[in-house]
Fold this sequence. Notes:
Blueprint: H1 2-8, E1 22-25, H2 37-53, E2 58-62, H3 69-82, E3 85-88, H4 95-102, E4 106-109, H5 114-121, E5 126-128, H6 131-137, H7 146-155, H8 168-182, H9 191-200, H10 212-217, H11 232-236, H12 240-243, H13 248-254, H14 258-269
Parallel strand pairs: 1-2, 1-4, 2-3, 4-5
Amino acid sequence: xxxxxxxxxxxxxxxxxxxxTAIVLGQYLAAIGILTEAEEERLxxxxxxxxxxxxxxxxxxxxxxxxxxxxxQALEKAAADAGVSLTVLDQPxxxxxxYGLLQPELVISCFSTALLTAATCYRIPVARTGTDLLxxxxxxxxxxxxxxxxxxxxxxPELGGEAPTRDIAHLSGLLTAVGYCMxxxxxxxxxxxxxxxxxxxxxxxxxxxVTRRRLTALQLPGGLRVIRLPGVARALRLPSSLARIPGVARALRxxPGARRTLRRMWRALG
Length: 270
């Protein structure tokens, strides 16, 4: 099937310096409200500079089909500053077709699943960047993009960094924990596995994968220890998990404005 995709792909424009050796995959994250357009421009520039730092002087940028033209213009300037020959793909084409046609030596993106295709089906080195920020900003926590972003963050090396040493069992446990935190009611049977994994990996079971607020709300390892104070949350219009934290009810009674302060603290825990 992959060979058929390559054979059916349109011809790429010729480049005098030779075919690109690195591919940057854009995703237009600003369109779904995760980054601003300016932030996404800087993300693309970071990808290009990372390719240049790895020794690539010919880079192809595959923008998202709906991304604004300003992305291309900003990246062209960054390429000129870095001494890189940049080709911008201005026709719709699957990333997998590019892999077959160009046989690149590096593919870079934020959390595109095409990174995984490149690594597993074509044995092309891959790198990610910006994935941790994306995981931090994804809302609500149940956002379906969280699963592919978690996979990419866990198994694809950071641009310019070392490859992760985690195995499939680790990834399976991580996805079980994240999946349970995303849909705890629908996947209640996963709670014992999620608890065990979170308890065994306290250094990993934190942002960007799971926020402390989420762990606290679900009473999972890594969250704040809470006690139940019936009626406090309802009376003060606070999240029930916040009102159960020791000392909260007493502070709310004694200090004017404490509820507003605690709301800010609660948001900061996320």
